[in-house]
Structures are given as C-alpha cells and as structure tokens.
Specification:
By secondary structure, the chain is α+β, with helices and mostly antiparallel strands. It has a single domain, classed as Immunoglobulins (Immunoglobulin-like, Sandwich). 15% of the residues lie in helices and 35% in strands. The strands form three sheets. It has a five-stranded mixed sheet, with no helix packed on it. A hairpin with a 5-residue loop joins strand 5 and strand 6.
Length: 150
Amino acid sequence: MRHQGKVLTAVAEASAAVLCIAGCRDTTAPRDQVLVRIEVTSSVVAPNHSVNLLGIVYNPTADTVFAGAGCAPGVGFWATDPAGQVTSLYAGSVWLCDQKDSNVIAPGETDSVGYFWRAPLVTGVYQLRAGLFYGGGPQSPSEPALVAVR
C-alpha cells in the first residue's frame, strides 16, 4: 500500500506539471487578431481607492490561443501614469501554476479577467489597458480607459 501512495503522489505531481505546461505555453495563432477591450467601474477615483477593471478577450480566429506568462492569467493589465511610465499591474505578483480559463482561448470564445486597481497617491490621468499577458508586455492591447486620480 505504501508503494501505491508514492505512485499516486507521483501521478498527481505529473498531472499538476502537465496542467502548468498547458497553461504556460505560447500560442501559434496570430495574437494580433485577438480582440481585447477593457471596462472600468469609474473614470474618476480618489488616491488609494480602488477601481474594478475587466479585461475582455475575444478570439475570432480558427486557432486556439494559449496566453499567459509563467502561470499568470491570460489577460493582463497595464497602467500608463501621467509622466508616461508604463507599468504592469501584475508586477511582483505570484501565481499558483494551475491552468486558468483565460490561458486557453478557443476559436470564437470570449474570456474575461477582473482586477482591482488601487489608485496611486500621485494624481493625474492614468491610461489603463488590458491585453494578452506575456512577460515582455501586452499582446493585442486594448484601447486605453482613462481614469483620473484626484
């Protein structure tokens, strides 16, 4: 019985590794054909208060798109501050390496990912974008949603 427990543990670990690999692989489909948009709950927010973001991705192609950097969701968010500095809102985040629904976007499928953005203390207008998330930056980025922090 003890031997079977080790085998089952090995099978479980192998299954987890396969899920991670499936959720973390790159796409062969053209990323520039995926349509992305962002929705925000408010266009004005006080410093240190939150705005809900929703990144929505539609795959109009005949190919399945695999998105995500490492084990992150397939949809990411970026902020451009009033000085023009672009920052990934996922910077410093740690993700469990489970496959998320947004990592695999089938032909004709729409997926969405939500995120709570805490407005910085620096006031001004911020441009928020969603896009397919990859370590090097957004793919198929949305048009910006403008949020004034004041």
